[in-house]
């Protein structure tokens, strides 16, 4: 089992834990808006680290984004495997072509 799969499983287990004992449970207790806010904050922090942070800072922020993304997916009951399947579906397609084909 890889790192992200183990983390996904741990997040699912901690979702229903006592919020005083688990950061994941605390986020879930505060609801989807707080989970989304944290994901957004981590994205901004990663963008700043990309521009002016050290390699270690960007690495840490990247880890934070992945963690909070997995929390958000768990909150929406979307398995990470679905994200991987979507990436597989897009493989071999130009990013410009893929973006042009979106319905949004």
UniProtKB/TrEMBL annotation:
Molecular functions per Gene Ontology: phosphoribosyl-ATP diphosphatase activity
Q: Keywords in UniProt for this one?
A: Amino-acid biosynthesis, ATP-binding, Cytoplasm, Histidine biosynthesis, Hydrolase, Nucleotide-binding
Q: Looking at the keywords, is ATP-binding present?
A: yes
Q: Name one Pfam family in it.
A: PRA-PH
Q: Does the keyword Electron transport belong to this entry?
A: no
Intracellular or extracellular location(s): Cytoplasm
- EC number(s): the record gives 3.6.1.31
The record's annotation in SUPFAM superfamilies points to: all-alpha NTP pyrophosphatases
Q: In which pathway does it act?
A: Amino-acid biosynthesis; L-histidine biosynthesis; L-histidine from 5-phospho-alpha-D-ribose 1-diphosphate: step 2/9
Q: Which reaction does it catalyse?
A: 1-(5-phospho-beta-D-ribosyl)-ATP + H2O = 1-(5-phospho-beta-D-ribosyl)-5'-AMP + diphosphate + H(+)
Give the first-level EC class, as a single word: hydrolase
Q: InterPro entries per the record?
A: HisE, PRib-ATP_PPHydrolase-like
Q: Which domain of life is it from?
A: Bacteria
> Which family does the entry's similarity section mention?
Belongs to the PRA-PH family.
Q: Which HAMAP family match?
A: HisE
The protein's name in its UniProt record = Phosphoribosyl-ATP pyrophosphatase
- Source species: Qipengyuania mesophila
Give the gene that encodes this protein.
hisE
């Amino acid at each position: 089992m890889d790192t992200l799969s183990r983390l996904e499983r741990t997040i699912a287990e901690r979702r229903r834990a006592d919020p005083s004992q688990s950061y994941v449970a605390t986020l879930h207790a505060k609801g989807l808006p707080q989970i989304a806010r944290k994901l957004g904050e981590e994205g901004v922090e990663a963008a700043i680290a990309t521009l002016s942070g050290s390699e270690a800072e960007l690495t840490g922020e990247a880890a934070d984004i992945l963690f909070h993304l997995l929390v958000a997916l768990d909150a929406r009951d979307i398995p990470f495997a679905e994200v991987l399947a979507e990436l597989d579906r897009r493989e071999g397609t130009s990013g410009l072509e893929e973006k042009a084909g979106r319905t949004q």
